[in-house]
Amino acid sequence: MDGTLVDSEKVWDVSLAALYEKLGGELTPEVRASMVGSVAENTMRIVYTDLGLELDPEAMAESSRWLNDYTADLFDGGLPWCAGAHELLEELAAEGTPMALVTNTQRELTERALNGIGRIYFAATVCGDEVVNGKPAPDPYLRAAELLGMAPRQCLAVEDSVTGTAAAEGAGCPVLVVPNDVEVPRGMGRTHLSSLSGVDAAALRRIHAALVGGAGERSA
């Protein structure tokens, strides 16, 4: 969701900077980059470690709630689509292709985002607080494939982060990587595109077939 369908990573930039200010620090680009795609618990560990604060579970949970509330208010103001994402969802939905939204964002905040994105596109949604281990563990993608009634290898994961790509590949999904703010290393089992602009359903099928067939990395 964040950075793949909607450019909400920019919104997280704002809310995380506000949290740092609240805690008496300043968020650096390097630390921010390390948070992309993380589950809430890991993000809080990064924040508190970076600021030299005690890793107190209650304080970290309170900060996480504050961050989610702050971000939710920003989400309610509307989220900009990533280039080509809305058009691609529309085409896939029109032809009846089942899709699952797989995100490390917690359910409550995901529901706020879906008010703008649209729930109608997704046959299933899996959030970071609904599995034992969030991304980069494979649990969210394994659950999504199960809900779709498909083997992971039959699915094409579309990801923008190192964390998400690791989760999808760990589950056995071929991956289309469309980086947003953070570079994702190249490798076998994944294809890189600069954006989803101009990408249609037929292109996704070609990418999936090439990856499942062992054609490996390509970029555009």
Characterization of this structure:
It is a single chain. With 220 residues, this protein is mainly alpha-helical. It is 48% helix and 7% strand. The protein has nine helices and five strands. The strands form two sheets. Strands 3-4-5 form a three-stranded parallel β-sheet. A two-stranded parallel sheet has the order 1-2. Helix 1 packs across helix 4 (57-75) and helix 4 runs parallel beside helix 6. It starts with 8 loop residues before the first helix and ends in an 8-residue tail after the last helix. The model has no long low-confidence stretch (mean pLDDT 92).
Defining traits:
single chain, 220 residues, mainly alpha, two-stranded parallel ribbon, 48% helix, globular
Structure class = mainly alpha
Strand order of the largest sheet: 3-4-5
Number of helices: 9
Q: Sum up the overall morphology in one term.
A: globular
Cα-based radius of gyration, to the nearest Å: 17 Å
Average pLDDT value?
A: 92
Q: What summary fits the major beta sheet?
A: 3 strands, parallel
Straight-line N-to-C gap: 22 Å
Q: Secondary-structure element order, as H and E?
A: HHHHHEHEHEHEEH
Helical content class:
40-55%
Low-confidence spans: none
Strand runs, count: 5
> What share of the residues does DSSP label as strand, in percent?
5-15%
Secondary structure topology:
Blueprint: H1 9-23, H2 29-35, H3 40-50, H4 57-75, H5 85-94, E1 100-102, H6 107-117, E2 124-126, H7 139-148, E3 157-159, H8 162-171, E4 175-177, E5 190-192, H9 201-212
Parallel strand pairs: 1-2, 3-4, 4-5
